[in-house]
Design brief:
Blueprint lengths: L8 H9 L5 H4 L4 H5 L6 H13 L9
């Protein structure tokens, strides 16, 4: 499944620059890890979490 359409361009670029091109790849990362990427902020996390929830997934739990 591709990344959600409501995701801002800087967030899309940040994910692509880190090799994340799908929601399944995204689910391997925690919120904390994603927030370290330049271009990912709280709004992007909300959009991404919502998209993951639609397919029954969520971000990785931080350890």
């Amino acid at each position: 499944m591709n990344l959600p359409k409501g995701l801002a361009a800087p967030a899309r670029r940040a994910l692509a620059n880190n090799g994340i091109h799908s929601l399944s790849q995204l689910a391997k990362y925690s919120e904390e890890e994603l927030l370290e990427f330049h271009g990912i902020g709280k709004n992007a996390i909300l959009v991404l979490r919502s998209a993951l929830k639609e397919i029954g997934k969520d971000l990785k739990v931080s350890s």
